[in-house]
Design a protein that fits this description.
Blueprint (H helix, E strand, L loop, with lengths): L1 H16 L4 H24 L26 E2 L4 E4 L1 H13 L3 E6 L1 H24 L4 H7 L8 H9 L3 H18 L1 E3 L6 H7 L1 E6 L5 E4 L4 E3 L8 H13 L5 H17 L3 E3 L1 H14 L4 E4 L4 E3 L7 H14 L4 H25 L7 H25 L18 H11 L2 H18 L4 H18 L6 H25 L11 H6 L2 H31 L4 H7 L5 H9 L1 H20 L4 H9 L22 H4 L4 H21 L4 H4 L1 H4 L7 H10 L23 H16 L7 H17 L10 H18 L9 H16 L1
Helix pairs in contact: 2-13, 2-14, 3-11, 4-7, 5-6, 6-10, 7-9, 7-10, 9-10, 13-16, 14-16, 15-16, 15-17, 15-20, 16-17, 17-18, 18-20, 22-23, 23-24, 23-30, 23-32, 26-29, 30-31, 31-32
Length: about 800
């Protein structure tokens, strides 16, 4: 059973990691992107799909007056035309329209001024005739009949009779211009005080004026003791200075009589109503808004007319698929995918050229998108108060995705995926900016820290880092939204603290941070096993010399085993100095020659240990070359059966590239007649390749040739090593073996210095130690001399 399972997993891994043409991978990517686009759009558009209708018919479960059998909550936000609110706004508009009045300024000349002149002329005549006593004046001037004797006497006593008309006329004009005196009492006096009055002035250039409602006075209020009389009396004292109090009272009383007799203002109901109708018509249709997840009615509550209206509107609007919103989300996701795509093409063009990497990224992304869907169902569930304490972004495992991708791949790729995911969280959180900042900040920090996961303890540190970042962003969101961190209820500090929002959000940040870090530790072994990813921890396991293949190499090809570790030392130092993945290089070198195990004695380094004739017979160059080439093919097959990562397997063919086996090719040409040489195909003496596709495999190519050549040095010195390293590198350059590796001239100089450093320390001249036999001979000779 185990063999069948291992064989099946080997086939799966081989299928996933198989090198495919870039065009094929791109087509797969397009399919995965399209599926992701549909999935994300569906998840984010759920609130806009609508909901089931609620039966509000007279016999329905939710008809007016009945008890709601269940809680009804709107699944999306929408607005509707609210006739009640519109009518209310129209009433407000009407109530704010000033009442219309007509004020005829012609009354001043035709009425008040004429009568005043007549009465003062009579007074002048009476004074000339010597009949100036109050009784006679009241008899001759009927309009002054209701004035007291004291008031008439004050008029008679005033020496400048010619000024009396000016005083009275000035006072009446002031009242006339400032106030609107109406004949009848107004039933809408209270409303008038709020709305004011619009006065149409007849007979003057100032056609229309707006005055306060308290300036419209029914004439019945003029003589009543109260605020109106007090205001009018005060007006007389302010506008008629240097006049005695008794005369001032007489002038004001007489002036008020004329105003009372000729009220110039008339209420215009037609104009008022027309203005109000116009104002009401100008009011736009008012809309009410029902928020997403707003509870319309709770189970057990009475369905009032207002509730029924909301239910009816929900049936009308919330049950419709909001195509505009869905299309908007779809287009936004398209734009984000294009941005992420251009970013990856610009900075990581070769990162996603294999099927396994694409499946890892998209599968993990789908996990997070699915979690967004499930979390939104809980977070915005009926009767849920989570949104009052937490932010939606605090629950989404963005850190898990970006920490995983940052560790497995690199921070650029992880940040790009996190950027896309942050906007998905933003839409799912009902456009909450704090949730977006939580998702984006966590994505960036976890992506950067993911590349720094070197030990298991680093996952614990990652949990603390993600927790700290979320606490900072959440605190900023609370401050911005004005939410309460801590409220004392008097129940004690500990109980108040555990019930506070501060404690709750801190706990949630810890849960999210450490859950994300823990989930990565859980997913990593699965991904390593299924997709055969060469993570740091996977490489550490493969670097164990107890691996079965390395043990076979040790027992069957011991010198190749020794050669392997020397090449590893050279390659790892060069990779370290070039800031490459030295652990990947070390493990790649460990397995680069495992193909020699089946025919270990054929290769020169092992012949002294396995001295069989068939191993050292090189008289058939073509057969020998085929055997050498087979060690590459055998190594690839052995590595696949052992489920080594593709990145490790690539060291097996690429450390030879397409270079020519010069010894066997030369021997073949030498042993054949000149006429038959044209039948020799040089490709039969070349390794199958490919050429090194990375700096790491190119370094191993040079180190492999250098280590073998260094054994033939007669003298180890800096100069001899410089010549040898230069010769090896030049030979690789001459065959164009390094063209596709990405190595630069500067890189080659660093590689030379690194190789030289390792070789000087390992190939230094050692003193020749004496043989034990020679030492015993000297001891014997010394003892004989002593006896003598």
């Amino acid at each position: 059973m185990k063999a069948i399972f291992d064989s099946s997993m080997t086939s799966v891994t081989d299928f996933l990691t198989k090198v495919r043409p870039v065009s094929v991978v791109r087509n797969i990517q397009i399919i995965l992107v399209f599926l992701t686009l549909l999935f994300v759009t569906y998840v984010l558009s759920i609130p806009f799909f609508g909901q089931s209708k609620v039966d509000t018919d007279p016999e329905g479960l939710f008809s007016e007056g009945k008890i709601a059998p269940e809680t009804i909550q709107s699944v999306k936000e929408f607005s509707y035309e609210d006739s009640d609110k519109t009518n209310l706004e129209k009433q407000k508009a009407k109530s704010n329209v000033p009442y219309a009045f007509d004020k005829d300024f012609g009354v001043l000349a035709s009425g008040i001024d004429t009568n005043l002149s007549e009465d003062l002329e009579i007074l002048r005549i009476l004074v000339q005739e010597g009949k100036s006593n109050p009784t006679t004046v009241k008899d001759r001037i009927p309009r002054w009949r209701n004035r007291t004797n004291d008031e008439i006497q004050a008029i008679l006593d005033y020496p400048k009779k010619e000024k009396l008309k000016n005083f009275i006329q000035q006072y009446t004009n002031l009242i006339f211009s400032k106030y609107c005196i109406v004949k009848e009492d107004l039933p809408f006096a209270k409303e008038l005080d709020k709305a004011g009055a619009k006065i149409r002035n007849i007979g003057t250039q100032d056609h229309t004026t707006i005055i306060d409602g308290n300036l419209v006075i029914p004439r019945s209020q003029i003589y009543k003791d109260g605020p109106v009389t007090a205001v009018l009396s005060k007006l007389a004292s302010e506008k008629l200075p240097n006049v005695s109090e008794s005369l001032l009272k007489a002038v004001s009383r007489i002036g008020l009589y004329y105003v009372y007799s000729y009220p110039a203002c008339n209420y215009n109901p037609e104009e008022t109503e027309n203005s109000r109708i116009k104002a009401a018509n100008a009011v736009s249709v008012q809309k009410s808004r029902i928020q997403a997840n707003e509870i319309i009615v709770r189970a057990g509550d009475v369905i009032t007319p207002e509730v029924k209206l909301k239910l009816d509107m929900m049936n009308l609007y919330a049950t419709r698929a909001n195509l505009a919103s869905i299309v908007s989300i779809f287009l936004t996701q398209c734009v984000l995918i294009v941005i992420v795509g251009f970013y990856l093409i610009r900075y990581r063009p070769n990162r996603l050229n294999d099927l396994s990497s694409n499946l890892i990224i998209f599968f993990t992304l789908w996990i997070v998108i699915a979690s967004i869907y499930l979390l939104s169902k809980v977070f915005y569930a009926t009767d849920s108060d989570l949104s009052g304490v937490y932010y939606f972004g605090m629950f989404v495992p963005v850190g898990m995705l970006c920490l995983l991708l940052g560790f497995v791949y690199d921070e650029q790729l992880s940040i790009a995926i996190g950027f896309f995911l942050a906007f998905a969280v933003f839409f799912a959180s009902r456009y909450n900016p704090t949730s977006f900042m939580l998702a984006f900040t966590v994505a960036v920090m976890s992506s950067i820290y993911g590349r720094r996961l070197l030990k298991r303890i680093d996952f614990l540190k990652a949990g603390f880092l993600l927790t700290f970042v979320q606490i900072l962003v959440t605190t900023a969101g609370y401050l911005f939204d004005g939410r309460e961190f801590y409220v004392s209820s008097g129940a004690g500090f500990f109980k108040d603290l555990t019930n506070s929002n501060l404690f709750r959000i801190t706990v949630m940040c810890f849960v999210n941070g450490f859950a994300s870090a823990t989930a990565v530790q859980f997913l990593l072994p699965l991904y390593e096993y299924i997709f055969n990813i060469p993570t740091r921890f996977k490489l550490i396991e493969l670097a164990d010399t107890g691996h079965p293949l390395l043990q076979q190499l040790l027992t069957k090809a011991p010198s190749t085993y020794t050669h392997t570790f020397m090449v590893a030392a050279l390659s790892e130092r060069a990779a370290q100095n070039l800031n490459l993945d030295r652990l990947l290089v070390r493990v790649g070198v460990y397995f680069h020659d495992i193909g020699k195990i089946p025919n270990a004695g054929f290769f020169v380094e092992n012949q002294h240990l396995i001295p069989k004739p068939e191993h050292i017979d090189k008289n058939n160059p073509a057969l020998a070359a085929k055997t050498v080439i087979d060690h590459v093919l055998d190594g690839i097959e052995m590595a696949k059966k052992a489920r080594l990562p593709r990145e490790i397997i690539s060291f097996i063919p690429e450390h030879h590239g397409t270079s020519t086996m010069a010894f066997f090719y030369h021997k073949a040409l030498q042993e054949i007649s000149s006429s038959a040489r044209k039948n020799i195909n040089k490709k039969d003496f070349q390794y199958p390749g490919p050429k090194p596709q990375s700096k790491e495999t190119a370094i191993v190519m040079i180190a492999d040739s250098l280590e073998a050549a260094s054994r033939s040095l007669d003298e180890v010195s800096p100069e001899s090593l410089d010549d040898l390293i230069r010769k090896i590198i030049n030979s690789k350059l001459a065959e164009n073996q390094l063209d596709e590796s990405g190595l630069t001239i500067g890189d080659l100089e660093i590689i030379k210095a690194s190789f030289k450093e390792v070789l000087l320390s390992s190939l230094h001249q050692r003193p020749k130690y004496p043989k034990p036999e020679d030492t015993k001979a000297l001891e014997s000779a010394n003892s004989k001399k002593s006896k003598r």
